[in-house]
Design brief:
Strand 6 and strand 7 form a beta hairpin. With about 260 residues, this protein is of the alpha+beta class. The protein binds zinc ion (ZN).
Length: about 260
């Protein structure tokens, strides 16, 4: 329990900052041990701030926080990964921001389930690193899709692509994905076409492979898919995730409006 000690150390990735007074910022972070946490970065907006650039969005730090009455204060930060390549490409930045939004809306503050936090942290770190090092948009999508699938599984909302949700049969061909139920039904169990998204066999097999592989592992599909194929999968998963959250994600909507 972090509240017992005066100060504590953890690895954390910055996901959001907002101003507090003239010189300070509140930084929302996803931490390895405690899940979502907030801390005040004092004097971060002064020119000679010792926290400085390490407190910007999408930087992973080892931080030391001091317990406070309203907010904990970030005393020290040592950069673990600044994911610099994310900031040189609008697509990389946009999809990373989308992922931070998912974490922010789907995770709870100071979650005590350390093992769960640890796994989400690793997944988040890996996806940012993967997107930062992507060579094209297909690779950005591949990373994003893996995160969407694995994150949902980790928080207990894993999507089902193999077994019909209604009759339990093992699906061999194309199927119908129900956004609301988060899984597929077979052609016999589909009674109202409008509520389902048709899922071609290839898409279904691709998603199963991405869901089941280890994060950094290559699957036999990775070199076969293109940007359009990946975008379809991404949007399907985005719809599903939005249906599970109280606040649908806005990052991509905002981008569409400004470009
Ligand atoms: Zn069925």
């Amino acid at each position: 329990m972090k509240s017992i000690k005066d100060s504590f150390t953890t690895d954390a990735i910055n996901i959001k900052t907002y101003p507090l007074g003239e010189y300070d910022n509140i930084v929302v972070m996803f931490s390895r041990q405690y899940g979502l946490i907030k801390g005040v970065a004092k004097g971060v907006k002064r020119p000679k701030s010792k926290l400085g650039a390490r407190m910007q969005m999408l930087v992973a730090n080892k931080i030391m926080l001091k317990n406070g009455r309203n907010f904990d204060t970030i005393c020290e930060a040592q950069a673990l990964n600044t994911f610099n390549k994310l900031r040189t490409n609008l697509d990389k930045l946009t999809y990373s921001m989308y992922l931070t939004e998912i974490i922010n809306v789907m995770c709870t503050d100071s979650d005590e389930d350390t093992q769960n936090n640890e796994r989400i942290y690793e997944l988040f770190y890996n996806v940012l690193d993967g997107i930062a090092n992507s060579l094209n948009k297909t690779e950005i999508f591949l990373n994003t899709i893996r995160f969407q699938l694995k994150f949902m599984t980790q928080i207990g909302y894993g999507a089902e692509f193999e077994t019909c949700l209604k009759c339990g049969c093992k699906i061999k061909d194309s199927a119908y994905f129900s956004v609301l139920s988060g899984g597929v039904v077979c052609s016999n169990c589909r009674y109202d076409f409008d509520t389902y998204i048709g899922l071609h066999k290839k898409i279904r097999e691709f998603l199963i492979a991405q869901q089941n592989c280890k994060y950094g592992e290559k699957t036999s599909y990775d070199n076969l898919v293109d940007e359009n194929f990946c975008e379809k999968c991404f949007l399907l998963l985005k719809k599903y995730i939005d249906s599970r959250s109280l606040h649908p994600t806005r990052t991509l909507k905002v981008l569409k409006e400004i470009t």
